[in-house]
Amino acid sequence: MPLLKATKFDGGADTQANKAGTEIVGDSSHASVFVNYDDNGTTTGIDPELDDILSLRIRIGDESKSTHSSYAFFGFDADADDKLDGFFVTGSGDTEIYDAGSDLNTSPNTTDISNSAHTTYVQNASNYDFALVSATNDPDWDGNNDLFSDGNPDVFISISIQVSDLDAFLATQGINYTQSSQLRFVALSATQTNTLNSDFNGIGNSGTDDWSQLFSDADIFSDPVDSTGVVDSTAPVVAITSAPFAQPANETAYPVGGSCTIGDGSVTASIGSASPGSQSVTCTASGTWIASFDVSAIADGTNVIVIDASQTDAAGNTGNATTVAASKDSSAPIVAITNAPTANDTNESSYPVGGSCTIGDGDVTVNITGATPGSQSVSCNPDGTWIASFDVSAIADGTDAINVSASQTDAASNTGSATPVTADKFDSTAPVVAITSAPTANDSNKATYPVGGTCTIGDGDVTVNITGATPGSRSVTCTASGTWTASFDVSAIDDGGNAIVIDASQTDVAGNTGNASTATASKDSSAPIVVITSAPTANDTNESSYPVGGSCTIGDGDVTVSIT
Question: Up-side HSE of residue 213: CA atoms within 13 Å toward CB?
Fold first, then answer.
């Protein structure tokens, strides 16, 4: 029988002991452990296994001597209880079979070995070999015999065990060994026979990995081996990768699919309450599978379509996919347009539309022909409304000039469409209005303070505002000559520069509003105080330049003086 490679391998630099000959090495291209079972051609009769030979090999990466400096161990489980029943040990000139010690022997930190060997072989060419890894002995040879580049060429340590001796040993454990019995191995190394203190194949050192993990959980048991070789105990790997929403377009031929293990048989896919409920489909050469079901009878809802898939290989190992649930929705969202105002100069660059939608059924797509953008996707808000804004400046004025449509598509691809709505677009030019007259307010005009200006003929009245005046706002006619006037009582406004603030606006029938530039005027309703304090007697000396004088209000202009 050819050498059988174990699938577990060990990285470098993870031995517990800094001693040569303890570093088990391997990688995905170079096995750490090999097993060979030779039945010697006897497969029938009474106890045909008793002349069989079991051989094992381990790869060591840090051996610096011409012989093995430490010990190699192959712990074995012969009754599939995830516990080591004994050990094959090689080192110091002997190969031996040891009983497991009194500890649990189910994890690296519970591994124990008895103090004395059950069977001892003096190493010779028939049961032991120490050799540098080379092209002649490495089935994975690629020219590399120093996997982790430590300067020490890797070596193979190989041992052979008489199955009759293994049979006798297992009998002492109450285990009946036959030709079909299966063995699983955990390979390790140590510096002496009674302390398993160095390297476990397939797991890092105790400072890196958890040595309290069970061998089975850490996945460092080899595949089972019997007299026929490595026993297939690996289940196919199957997965469900495609399970879309069910909806009217696909519910009668609902597609599911996934991945599977090539060469391990058909995939059985099932959906409860579907038709059919279960079916067997091919695992293709590309490692995929697809199936189709009628799920019409399944009611709408979240995760109502429950999909399972499994694959069973020729050895009877079954792999089960993780169950996947998909939703079914055969009802289209309800969407409506409830707001599409008349477009005008004020709103045409950000024209607002809005409406209602079905909460949880995705975004709403809104379209206005000729707008920018022509279409956009907006959120359906938690309150079941949507809003969108468009630039409709390029659309010509007119009745029903703006055409609005909206739709909403849910996760199941069901689409609901709103009834289209049209809106008018009228004059988009705002009236032009200006304030041209705003005199200084004084004591004589403050009760009927006059303001005025220009306006756009035919575009409606002008609204004039003076803050603090009575009234504060009033609407006046835009005359046929394009002017307007208004009168306010500004008595309550305090005197001061720019104390009177005037605004004016004009809104046409399309809702376009023109605003005048704000004007300000001063108010001064208090007369200056002027007094004559000097008027001397006129005489021959001063009559030609008679001086008079007095006091006045600073900042209130020149004083006019007259003598009659």
Answer: 17
Concatenate the DSSP letters of all residues of 337-359 into one string.
EEE-PPB-TTTGGGEEEEEE--T
Q: Are 505 and 515 in contact (CB under 8 A)?
A: yes
Vertex 363, ends 359 and 369: CA angle to 5°? 130
Q: pLDDT (tens digit, 9 = 90+) per residue, 474-510?
A: 999 999 999 999 999 999 999 999 999 999 999 988 7
Virtual CA dihedral for 100, 106, 108, 112, nearest 10 degrees?
A: -20
Would the CATH topology of 336-425 be identical to that of 434-524? yes
Torsion region of 160: left, alpha or beta (phi above 0 gives left; psi -120 to 50 gives alpha): beta
247-302 pLDDT, tens per residue?
A: 888 999 999 999 999 999 999 999 999 999 999 999 999 999 999 999 999 999 99
Cα distance between residue 18 and residue 69, in whole Å: 12
Question: pLDDT tens across 377-394, in order?
Answer: 999 999 999 999 999 999
* 451, amino acid identity: V
User: Among candidates 367, 360, 365, 368, which has minimal Cα distance to 392?
Assistant: 368
The domain segmentation of the chain, as residue ranges, is 4-230, 239-328, 336-425, 434-524, 529-564
Q: Which two tokens stand for residue 158?
A: 């190989």
3.40.50.1440, 2.60.40.10, 2.160.10.10, 1.10.760.10: which CATH number matches 434-524?
2.60.40.10
CATH number of 336-425: 2.60.40.10
Residues 238, 254 contacting (CB under 8 angstroms): no
Q: Which residues of 514-527 are buried (b: 16+ CB within 10 A; e: fewer)?
A: bebeebebebbbee
pTM of the model as a whole = 0.48
Which one has a higher pLDDT value, 536 or 1? Answer: 536
Closest CA to 493 of 442, 555, 556: 442
Residue type (1 letter), 78: A
Task: Judge contact between 519 and 486, C-beta under 8 A.
Answer: no
Correct CATH for 239-328 of 1.10.579.10, 3.30.750.24, 2.60.40.420, 2.60.40.10: 2.60.40.10
